[in-house]
Design brief:
Helix content: 25-40%
Structural class: alpha/beta
Largest sheet: 5 strands, mixed
Shape: globular
Radius of gyration: 16 Å
């Protein structure tokens, strides 16, 4: 027989970063783009909202703003942080360039465009989907994910079974939390 078990997932966008204020793209984990003081406050508030939910592990994007947010949340809720590159922001092909330049570069075909050899929205969604497939078979009841607006769009689309085009313009503010159930068939042995 097969039991079905749901994992509760609380996904949040990182706190405000220096590049958010400058409206610049950052998808290279080697770039030291940190949280602003407001971003750290946002992370503390998110941690307080997530406290008491039984979070066992936090999976974070390797980008510094996400790792910094995850460390604040993890310290508050008492959960270890594991960095997973599959949660990284979309590889925009526009590192350090204005977000408006990236948006203009994909405007003709938002789902398939790969500016400067970056990832398309569909490439990114497939990467996030692969992470969720892996996560679904991990032995956790409740986890948190700390990632990026584009990653939350992908998570919402996958969790709600929405076509990718339905989430292209979905906005998630800094430290906004999107919670959903992740289902997996678990063999009973």
């Amino acid at each position: 027989a097969e039991r079905r078990a749901a994992m509760r997932v609380h996904a949040l966008r990182h706190g405000q970063s220096e590049y958010n204020l400058l409206h610049l793209c950052n998808d290279d984990p080697a770039q030291p783009v940190a949280l602003t003081p407001i971003g750290r406050e946002q992370a503390i508030h998110a941690a307080k909202r997530l406290d008491g939910l039984g979070i066992e592990r936090i999976y974070a994007s390797p980008l510094p703003r996400a790792r910094e947010t995850a460390a604040i949340v993890g310290a508050h809720v008492g959960a270890p942080v594991v960095v997973d590159p599959r949660l990284a922001d979309i590889r925009s092909g526009c590192e350090g360039r204005p977000v408006a330049e990236y948006q203009a570069a994909i405007a003709h075909d938002p789902l398939h465009a790969r500016p400067h050899g970056g990832e398309s929205l569909l490439d990114h969604r497939a990467r996030v989907s692969g992470f969720l497939d892996w996560l679904a078979v991990q032995p956790h009841a409740v986890v948190a994910l700390v990632a990026h607006e584009e990653t939350l769009r992908a998570l919402e689309g996958i969790a709600e079974k929405l076509p990718a085009e339905a989430t292209v313009d979905r906005a998630f503010g800094n430290c906004a939390v999107y919670s959903f159930e992740l289902w997996s068939g678990i063999g009973s042995g």
